[in-house]
Amino acid sequence: MSMRRASRCPTAPAPSGVRALAFVAAFALAACTSAPAVIELTPAPTHEPNTVNVSVLLDLSGPRSPSGQPQRNAMQIWLDQIQSGRVKLRVKFVDVAGSDAKLLLELRRAVVDDHADAIVVGVPVSLDDSFGQAAQVAGIPVLLTLPTAEPMASPGGRFTFALAPTPDAIARLVVSDIAARGLLAPMLLASDDSAAAVAERLAFQAELARRGLAGPAPIPLAQPDGAQRVLRAAAVARSVVLTGASAPYGDIIRGLPAALAAPVYLSYLTETADVTNLRDQAVIVTWPGSRALAPFPLAPAPGARAAFMTAFTDRHGPPSTLAGSAYDALALIDTAAQQAPAELDGPRLRLRLEATTFAGVVTQYSFTPSRHAGFAADDLVHLRWNATRGVPVRAA
Q1: By the 8 A CB rule, do 287 and 382 touch?
Q2: What is the DSSP string of 238-299?
Q3: Please, are residues 283 and 387 in contact by the beta-carbon 8 Å criterion?
């Protein structure tokens, strides 16, 4: 791990009341304008020394998939295992219940009311809209555990760090595998209308176009006959691509013919529990994830990864890549904080994060001032379910 200290740091903090009013005004402006407000916020000294306040925004209820519960479970394991350094992380979990409006409200509340030094967001977001502007106004590190485009190409990128691979990187992996197997046509592409599914579909279609390949017209799952259209098309397809979280596709996959020869490509958002719920049909699906969490036939290397995998599996079953990324989010914040326990405000944490190379349980993250998407491309592979071992393994 390497870190460097910045030569310029914030000076005297503004009073908390002034800071709150400034953020409220800037937040309202961000929600109503297309350009982000350029406002530098300084931290209010309202919490205990050597303590980092972290707000974690997850979907713990509501209809949006994937559920944030596995991410919360992973973070709780980190809290149970790690709290032994000079700096303590005080973590608050917040349910945004599948609501983009509540996500923005809780982002504001984390900064103004809870005096957060860092925020972890484990729900789908777009940095090109009001969320990106609000992240810029907040002025503290915001770590995203779900796929998003390179943050530095967006309004909120200066303070935003992406722990998952970009949608473009995921699309390259999937298209490369389909092309290498000669399964490009006929192809079935289905998508629900969630923001995450649409982003994946657009990236997949863009990758096909970049290679000069003609892709199929996507089947909208939200249409009344969407599921039936998918089932009919799957009967003749050579490959099936289902974008977005895997849970909504469970009944469709279980309804596919047992003799279906076409592989089913699921999303990076796939939770391990969703795969096990497919029962016998689990053998036909693959999904992108981290090879670090699919170590068989080799045992995981000793250390944090083995401890995380053992603890999570004992409590909840094999972890997904999303769960591992949530675990790494706290580890990254902690690593940045431990370097200088007397300098724990958000702007200084951001400077240390963007000078970080960190070996997490999912991948080796590497950030720079110009690159805030830290997932190592070589660690992104296709996974499949090994029913004999009861774990995900790397697909051949």
Answers
A1: yes
A2: SEEEEES-SGGGHHHHHTS-TT--S-EE--TT--HHHHHTTGGGGGGEEEEEEGGG--TTSP
A3: yes
- pLDDT digits 0-9 by tens, 176-219: 999 999 999 999 999 998 989 999 999 999 999 999 998 899 99
Please, how many CA atoms are within 13 Å of residue 97, restricted to the half-sphere of its CB?
A: 4
The strand order across the sheet containing 88-95 reads 88-95, 51-58, 118-121, 142-144, 160-162
Q: How far is CA 361 from the centre of its chain?
A: 14
CB neighbours (10 Å) of residue 251?
A: 10
Decide if 16-28+42-165+305-377 and 167-296+381-394 have a common fold.
yes
Question: And the tokens for 182?
Answer: 């000669």
Nearest CA among 291, 198, 285 for reference residue 246: 285
Residues lower than pLDDT 50 in the chain: 1-20, 22, 26, 30-31, 33-45
Residue corresponding to tokens 């675990």: 327
Q: Any idea where the domains of the chain sit in the sequence?
A: 16-28+42-165+305-377, 167-296+381-394
The amino acid at 333: I
Q: What is the longest distance spanned by two Cα atoms in the chain?
A: 68
Peptide bond into 220 cis (omega under 30): no
CA distance 228 to 223: 10
- 């977005």: which residue's tokens? 244
Cα(344)–Cα(50) distance, rounded to whole angstroms?
Answer: 7
Architecture of domain 16-28+42-165+305-377: 3-Layer(aba) Sandwich (3.40)
The pTM for the full model equals 0.87
Q: Which helix (H) or strand (E) holds 332?
A: helix 321-338
Class of domain 167-296+381-394 (CATH, top level)? alpha beta
The answer for residues whose C-beta is within 8 angstroms of residue 342's C-beta and 6 or more apart is none
